Amino acid sequence: MQKLLSLTRKALSDYNMIKDGDKIAVGLSGGKDSISLLALLAAYKKFAPEKFDLLAINIDLGFSDINKDEVQATKDYCESIGVELIIEPTQIYDIILERQEKSPCSLCSKMRRGALNSVAKEHGCNKLALGHHADDVLETFLLSLIYEGRISTFMPTSHMDRSNITLIRPLIYIEEKYLSGLCRRYNLPIIHNPCPQDKHTKREDVKELVAKMEEQYGCKQNMLTALFHPERNNLWDKSLK
What we know:
The protein has 241 residues and is of the alpha/beta class.
């Protein structure tokens, strides 16, 4: 826990993610990443120099086969650490089925994010924390490079003008395997995802690609270092011609 807290604190400090008086909504999807984020922020709050409030928001997508015992365990955990949990019911899954989208994951992500923003704003939050970790940073970079021809990944912080909420990602320095270990060690509750698209996406393909590259070349940490230190990059600049 201490090592992960240190990495979380470093990300918060490096990108000035939290300030006094913030009310931060944690997007609690039910997976290991978001519950780890909630646990780490709740632990950080105890000794943080900044004074801030935490709220957990779960967007219920409308699956009929969600495990109710897992949901209750998550409610109990939030209560045990003194964080209010808001569960927002939606019909997002039914809407996606009706539209028969070619890229249902993209639409689902947009609708979930919109619902998160709305609930966060409704409850007076000025920041929204998401559980994207170091592996997500690298996978997003490779997805952009391979499928879009762009050298790009998501930002540690970004301000959303429409909702006037700032998005923060405190786990960007932590690799996914350490979050899995945190959940096992502290028996953090997980709500398993019943979505039929789970584990069948381009992101999952890229995750497997990174695993193969790491196994063959041991290059994952070097790739992350390149992303975390863009000042070292040597890319062409047409403005210099």
